[in-house]
Amino acid sequence: MDSEVEKLKSAIYRYKHLLKGGTIDLEKTLQLEEIEQELMKMLRDKLASEKVLDKDLISIIDTMFRDSLLAELVSTASQKLDTPVDNIEQAYKDFLTGNIENNEAKVVFVVIQAIARLKAEHEETRHGIVDMITATCPVCGAITRTMTQESTGYYMVCPFCGYKWRVSKSVLTCPFCGNKDPLSLGVFTGKKDRRLGLAWCQSCDITWRIILDERIVKTVPRLFLPVISFGAEIYRGSIEPYREKPSNFSNDT
Ligand SMILES: [Zn+2]
Ligand SMILES: [Zn+2]
Q1: 78 pairs with which residues across the strands?
Q2: Reduced to 3 DSSP states, what percent helix, strand and coil does the chain have, rounded to the nearest 5?
Q3: Which ligand is the nearest neighbour of the Cα of 226?
Q4: Between 103-127 and 57-66, two packed helices, what is the crossing angle to 10 degrees?
Q5: In this structure, are residues 168 and 154 in contact, taking their beta carbons and an 8 Å threshold?
Q6: Span 98-119, mean pLDDT?
Q7: Which ligand is in closest contact with the Cα of 173?
Q8: Which residues are within 5 Å of ligand 2 (an ion), measured at CB?
Q9: What distance in angstroms lies between residue 200's CA and the mean position of ligand 2's atoms?
Q10: E strand or H helix at 247, and its extent?
């Protein structure tokens, strides 16, 4: 088994209890990871010398579409998933319009995710971790609600491509509106278990999830962090009373 797949497997075993109530299809998750790792490996070899990865994601996909590399990847993924894809163009359109319930679009999803992950990896290698106050992934355009709190600051992690950027070096900052005022930002977490938290910005009334335990961030593969952060949803009920009757709150709520 690929070492990245092994890492994911042990992370799932280690932290799936945090998902409380939420379930995860282990076999399917590992199978998809194995396929994506293989696609990424194929692409790394093919694209390394060509500078294609310097382009933005849509242009990369367009280029691959034209030189039939996309077709090659879709064919590999479709064999592994045992799902024939007759019309790649249609499957791609379905994927783009969010119509991913049909199996053909799922195959495309896996392929596009692999390309996006490779692009994210490329950006990080070129520029390191960049500073930006936003919840929209600059690589793939997905909106993320997953933040990590680390000794070097607060970061966002994209659930689709795994790209990571820093929102703030020191104080908690709302990635949606840039609010830094501690009196209108709250983190709701457990009394004993403080590994995950739910953040709420009173200024724009948006909530997002925070992984407060840096050990999780260090041991769990990037793309699985947003999945784990879902465990913070158990604190949602604690926010509601404040939402109904807005007032300042202290940080120990
Ligand atoms: Zn992304
Ligand atoms: Zn805000």
Answers
A1: none
A2: 50, 15, 35
A3: 1
A4: 120
A5: yes
A6: 90
A7: 2
A8: 174, 176-177, 179, 201, 203-204
A9: 8
A10: none
178: left (phi over 0), alpha (psi -120 to 50) or beta: left
Ligand (nearest to CA of 175): 2
Report the C-alpha gap between 97 and 201 in whole angstroms: 31
Amino acid identity, residue 198? L
User: pLDDT tens digit string along 131-154?
Assistant: 999 999 999 999 999 999 999 999
Closest CA to 182 of 248, 232, 243: 248
Distances 230 to 21, 62, 117, 123 between C-alpha atoms, Å: 11, 33, 21, 26
Q: Distance (Å, rounded) from C-alpha 163 to C-alpha 138? A: 8
Amino acid at 188: F
- Which amino acid type is present at position 166? R
pTM for the whole structure: 0.91
Q: How many CB atoms lie within 10 A of CB 243?
A: 11
- Cα–Cα dist 63/196, whole Å: 40
